[in-house]
């Protein structure tokens, strides 16, 4: 299986430094992906914004991202937003993806230690960002959540779940990717 070509797509007012770092980390830390940062920034749809929640409805943004990416020569598209995201039934999400599809999105908002009243820590922030990106890309590769708490495909109900898991797939999940 060759490397999966991924376009990292900045969405809205997201840090260019963070998007560049994510692109670099996906290329260096995982032999599965070949990541490229888009040279254009897409705006976040105001229709996706819920003023009562002060969050963006992720499925709406994901649909737009998929439409925009239809004619691009990439295997996967990963949108990266600073905005806080949600889906119906959950208070927030770190990201969302099309299971077995091409498109995924992550939010950096709740990955920053400062969100939890902690001191800024770029190393921790970047590691969290990498884990959530790989998790959502894993969903695009057809992977469901894994019961192994150390696997990147473990469901993160909180930031502490994200901190406990690795940025790599466990052997069972890796095997499922290879079989696809």
Please explain how this structure is put together.
The protein is of the alpha/beta class and 180 residues long. It has one domain (4-179): Collagenase (Catalytic Domain) (3-Layer(aba) Sandwich), CATH 3.40.390.10. 33% of the residues lie in helices and 19% in strands. The protein is built from five helices and eight strands; from the N terminus they run E-H-E-E-E-H-E-E-E-E-H-H-H. It has helices spanning 16-29, 58-69, 122-140, 159-164, 171-179; strands at 4-11, 33-37, 49-50, 55-57, 76-81, 85-86, 95-97, 103-107. A five-stranded mixed β-sheet has the order 2-1-5-8-7, with helices on both faces. A hairpin with a 5-residue loop joins strand 7 and strand 8. The chain is globular, with a radius of gyration of 15 Å. 38% of the residues are buried.
Jot down its keywords:
Collagenase (Catalytic Domain); 5-stranded mixed β-sheet; alpha/beta; single chain; 3-stranded mixed β-sheet; 180 residues
Large-scale geometry: globular
State Rg.
15 Å
CATH class: Alpha Beta
User: Largest beta sheet, briefly?
Assistant: 5 strands, mixed
Strand content: 15-25%
Distance between the termini: 9 Å
Poorly predicted residue ranges: none
Helicity, as a percent range: 25-40%
What is the CATH topology assignment?
A: Collagenase (Catalytic Domain)
- State the fourth-level CATH superfamily: Collagenase (Catalytic Domain)
Mean pLDDT: 95
Quaternary structure state of the chains depicted? single chain
Write out the strand line-up for the largest beta sheet, numbering strands in chain order. 2-1-5-8-7
CATH architecture annotation: 3-Layer(aba) Sandwich
Number of helices: 5
Count of extended strands: 8
Q: What structural class should be given to the helix and strand makeup? A: alpha/beta
Number of domains: 1
User: Helices and strands, in N-to-C order?
Assistant: EHEEEHEEEEHHH
């Amino acid at each position: 299986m060759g490397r999966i070509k991924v376009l990292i797509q900045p969405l809205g007012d997201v840090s260019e430094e963070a998007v560049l770092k994510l692109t670099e980390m996906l290329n260096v830390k995982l032999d599965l992906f070949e990541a490229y940062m888009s040279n254009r920034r897409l705006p976040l749809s105001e229709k996706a914004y819920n003023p009562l929640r002060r969050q963006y409805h992720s499925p709406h943004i994901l649909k737009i991202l998929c439409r925009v990416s239809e004619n691009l020569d990439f295997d996967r598209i990963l949108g990266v937003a600073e905005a806080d995201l949600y889906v119906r039934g959950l208070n927030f999400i770190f990201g969302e993806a099309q299971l077995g599809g091409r498109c995924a999105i992550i939010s950096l908002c709740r990955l920053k230690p400062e969100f939890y009243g902690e001191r800024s820590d770029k190393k921790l922030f970047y590691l969290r960002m990498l884990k959530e990106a790989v998790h959502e890309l894993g969903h695009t590769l057809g992977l469901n959540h894994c019961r192994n708490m150390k696997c990147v495909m473990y469901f993160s109900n909180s930031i502490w779940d994200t901190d406990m898991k690795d940025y790599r797939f466990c052997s069972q999940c890796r095997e499922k990717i290879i079989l696809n």
